[in-house]
Amino acid sequence: MNSIAPPIDLRALQVFVTVCETASMTEAARVLGISQSAISQCIKVLEREHGDVLFDRQMRPLRPNAAGRVLLDRARPLLAHARDVALSVRAATKTSLSLLRIGCVDSFAATIGPALVEQLVGTAENLRMWSGLTPMVSEQLVNRELDLAICTESTVDPERVTQQLLFSERFVAVVPLSHAGAPFVEVARSIPLIRYSRRQMTAQQAERFIRHIGIDAPPMYEFDATDPLLSLVASGRGCALTTPLCLLQARHHLPNVALAPLPESPLAKRHFFLLRRNGEWDDIAKLLADCSIRTLRNEVEPTLRKAMPALPLELFN
Question: What range(s) does the HTH lysR-type domain occupy (predicted)?
Fold first, then answer.
């Protein structure tokens, strides 16, 4: 007679994986929203069931030992499969997830985010969309504070996180109306270059392009948001490099600024990536990707071209 396999405590496995990923029982407790004593108890249960310790407790930060690494390699796909089973059952019965957490960079959240929320109505009982800078959003995904993330650059571990290119948008140069038609390189040498804050990925990407086209303007004004940046350009205090989504985010300034031609370059764009932990949320990720591209083509680009007909032909790809 075949023996019955011992039950698998998925909750304890999730706790174990989170401790491994955060390298701390205290941090794992914060991420999972449970007490540290509950974390310790789950680890003790697993160690008792497997007949071996799973962590080298002499190491700091906390790291799994050889037995723990074997369990970690097996636990991740097992948990991912369990989530897929739950999603399939919910889809079959047309029930919704209890919680879905999505993080986006600000310009994406403000322009494409509303369409995503509308698309996801009914998918989750509790839908949360947070916005912030790329480094923060990426870290929250890795720490399991988010389920999916949309960022403009990523340095996450590919063994843990799947990175999917959503689309690219080209940089555009905005200048005061008094400088309309002049090449951006000339304008940036005659009036201050207003920049995004250097803690933003967009600023770092823009800076590479600026230097590539031969502009060496000293820093004078830096902003986290597009609204004050365009406000200064509109008042004639400088010029700036920005993007179509950022323009749409601060569209009330568009009648008071002009576009300036930019040299062609492979660096003249930024990329948007959809991130998710490996093996998780595949169906929702496809839904988000399809909705993002559709919104970009059918809503965002027509709105921008109506406001600024002189925009380059290929804004997104």
Answer: 8-65
